Amino acid sequence: METNTEKIFAFIDTYAESSDSLYLESVIEACQKWVKGEQQPDLEAIATKEEIRRGIQLAVLKGMNRHAQPNHQMTPDAIGMLIGHIAGRVAQDKQNLALLDPAAGTGNLLYTVMNAIGNGATATAVEVDELLVRLSAVMADLLEQPVTFYIQDSLRPLLVDPVDMTISDLPVGYYPDDDNALNYELMPTEGHAYAHHLFIEQSMKHTKAGGYALFLVPANLFDSEQSSYLHPYLKNRTLIRAVIQLPDSLFKNAIHAKSLLILQKPYPEMTATPDVLLAKVPDMTDKHAMALFLQKIDSWASE
C-alpha cells in the first residue's frame, strides 16, 4: 500500500514527465494546480506537513539529478531532521518564533525546522536563484507555512528585522564581490573572502541579542586558510554554544564533511560564558546510539 509521501511524489512526477517544460518547472506547475484545487494527489487521509514536504522533496531531487547545477543542492533529510530536533530544544517551546535562512535554496531545511518547531513559527527566506525561490514559495503554500521571500544576494544589505533564530546550510567557497565584502569584518587583507564566513557575520547581524544561529559548516572550519580571521570574530561577536561533528557516512567524499556550529548572540543579562558542547553524531542507523546522543542534546539544551 502506497504511503501519502509516495502518492504525492507519484502525482507530481506523473505530471512532470508528461509536461513539455523542464522537470523542475513542471514540479512548480503541479504544485500550483494542487494549491488551486485544480488537480491533486489521490490521498486516503489528510497528509501531514512532513508527508507533503517529503513527497515534494523526492520530486525536486529527481529534477536536480536530471539537470544538475552547482547551486542546486539539498540538505540531506537526516541532517535536516537532526537540526529540526536541536532547534526545537533550543527554542524551548517559545511561541511565534521568527526564523531566517539566508541561503534558503528550495526551503527544504527551513521547512523541516519549521515543522519540528511548530508553535506559530514564521520565517524569512533569502535566495538568489529565482527558480529555487519559486519552488520554495509553492511548497510554503502547500505546507501553510508563513514565509517571506527575498530574491537577492544575501550578502547585500537585507531589509530583514532581527530574528530569534537563524538556520542555514552555508554556501561554501569564495565570495567574488570584493567591493561588497569590504563591508564585513571577515574580509581578509588579501584575496577573496570565504562566502561561508560572510554568511555567518551577516546572519549574526540579523539575529536578536540572546538569539541562536545553527549553521552547517565545513568540518575544517576552524583549521582553514582564513580561520585566523574567524577565530577573533567568533570570540568577540558571538558565544559558541556547540560544535557537533556529523558522520562522514552522510557525505560522498570526506573532504565535503560538515559539522553543525551553534552560536548565540551575546545579551546584556549574560553573567558568565557558557561551556561549549563538543560532540560527534554516531552512526544514524544505530538507533540505541542515536537515542543516547539525543538525550545528551536534550540535557544540554535544558541546562
UniProtKB/TrEMBL annotation:
This is Class I SAM-dependent methyltransferase. Residues 75-287 form the DNA methylase adenine-specific domain. GO terms for molecular function: methyltransferase activity. Keywords: Methyltransferase, Transferase. Residues 11-64 form the YtxK-like N-terminal helical domain. It comes from Sporosarcina soli. GO terms for biological process: methylation. Pfam families: N6_Mtase, YtxK_like.
